[in-house]
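In response to reviewer comment 3 from the previous cycle, which asked for concrete evidence that the modeling workflow produces usable outputs, we include below a single protein chain processed end to end. The sequence was submitted unchanged, and the resulting structure tokens are shown without manual editing.
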Amino acid sequence: MRQMVSTLALACIAISATGCAVVMAAHQPSRKDTRLLTPGMPRNAVLAEIGPPIATETKEGKRVEVYSFVQGYSKGARVSRTIGHGTADVVTLGLWEVVGTPTEAVFNGKRVAYEVTYDSSDRIERVVPLKQ
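The workflow returned the following structure tokens.
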């Protein structure tokens, strides 16, 4: 009976201790559709997908904006990672956190930046990758 209670207590602790890697995986940044950064695409579509620019200026009468963001992961990848970490936590009684948490800290997306020039109709004229 004692063995059963001890095992049950350990299982409860492991399940309640799951979290860091699981939560980190679930809250990774989402993937932005950079295919929108093509000539002819309206500025509103870019703003809706990527968000506001970090800098805006006018060069030779044209709007030039710099966008910088963390390129994250697809929803499927985030869900798979979350389930994988949760399962590993339960199976290893929480020991997986020693590996899972640093892994999620490293794989937390990649910062990218683009310079986008718009024409007079606020459609993309040119895109220059600054950081990929």
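Helices lie at 2-17, 20-26, 43-50, 75-91, 97-106. We consider this sufficient to address the reviewer's concern, and the full set will be provided in the supplementary archive.
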